[in-house]
């Protein structure tokens, strides 16, 4: 009757009975029962149950579900000592004790060891534990009713503990999983779209070696490790990779291949080399000679007065100039004006030369290359240079000639960074033969070289380097005292003045090409420009293209037609 009104009776230690509200039973002092005094009927008791095999925290939720919905009892677990504290009516607590006795035997009696022949114990343990975890999460089953699986790497075995049915289900799965793979299933062919197969072989071999080091102790000694059977071969004809490995290695290598076989960006590098040279020179001098006294002679004029005087005397004697005349070689190599007066013992020679050199160079080399790929551009000519001369026993002269390439050279390696920046490693050279040099040892070369690395945003034009050179030289040769006399001193003096200016600037502009549309647009732009120059030349409005003959005009519809799409394998 008291239970109907929400009251319960508690037996105290002194034998008295105490009536309390059922809601306060959990906190009220009651009889501590044990196996000798379990209590009977609706008597309220508290029972402490130690567990030997099952974790108390796993068993407590299950026991709470077995108590009556309107029961006044409670189940609490104390994890440090692995005990359960049960409070409630004696009849209910005694039922829970029977359940605990039957459940607290799992562990020592329900273990099983399964040796694997083909599969990896570590890999299967991970797969099965994940499967059990997902099943447990969906069904909300207590962990003690699920199997536990541990892998032994040394013996390549699985240790399974749990209920009989759970172990049987896992054993059935292992029979299907622990099978030998066919050799055909271990070999795959990967057709590459962008990367070069021969280049990836070394990378993938390194990756497989790294996997082998990480998995070196994951197989038992008696079985052959799948990592030791990795074979990677490249087929250049089809640009494909043939890989033989087990399934787990195949999946890891396939992920690496997918990340490496991507379309690399291309870079259009356009350079502008501008060089302007302007030089002026003036050589003016007077030389005197007397047969009996001597001569005022300046050898740096290129025309000594004594040689000229001997040549004139020989001319008067023979009536002509031959190769034997002393002035023959002298006048043939001289540039400028020479005027003289030779009569009797006296002779005077006036030499004058004015020079004006201008040289404008504009070169615009351009080249397209892949990201991180060295590209070179070379337009010029090979100039023969005498490197040696030897006289043989038959008085024959044998000359050794080397050739030096002059012109415009461009070497560039672009690296596309995150965003639109490009790191350029550049080697730029512009060389030419100096036509103003009269050296008898061979040609003189003008060489301008830049070797640099710059970071440029795509589409931006930057200057790589420049040179502003202003050269001035004045040389005076004169007769002491006489050359210093005002006005008259000019007759006893030789003056050489030279001045040159040179401006050199090198600009560069990279453009990142990430897709076919950009590449097609840039190509069409340059193609159209050269076609227009052809057309203007034919119309007589421009001389942009060298040559007098009429060249056929480039096809206007070259970039209007689309090539058919490539077939897929």
UniProtKB/TrEMBL annotation:
Domain named Type II/III secretion system secretin-like: which ranges?
352-514
Q: Where is the NolW-like domain?
A: 46-105, 112-181, 187-266
Q: Pfam families, from UniProt?
A: Secretin, Secretin_N
List, in alphabetical order, the GO biological process terms annotated in this UniProt record.
protein secretion by the type II secretion system
The species this protein was found in: Escherichia coli
Matching entries from PANTHER family are given as: PROBABLE GENERAL SECRETION PATHWAY PROTEIN D (PTHR30332), SECRETIN GSPD-RELATED (PTHR30332:SF24)
**Main localization of the protein described in the UniProt heading:** membrane
Question: Key word Transmembrane present in the record?
Answer: yes
Q: Which GO terms describe its cellular component?
A: cell outer membrane; type II protein secretion system complex
Tell me where on the tree of life, at the top rank, the source sits: Bacteria
Protein name listed in UniProt: Type II secretion system protein GspD
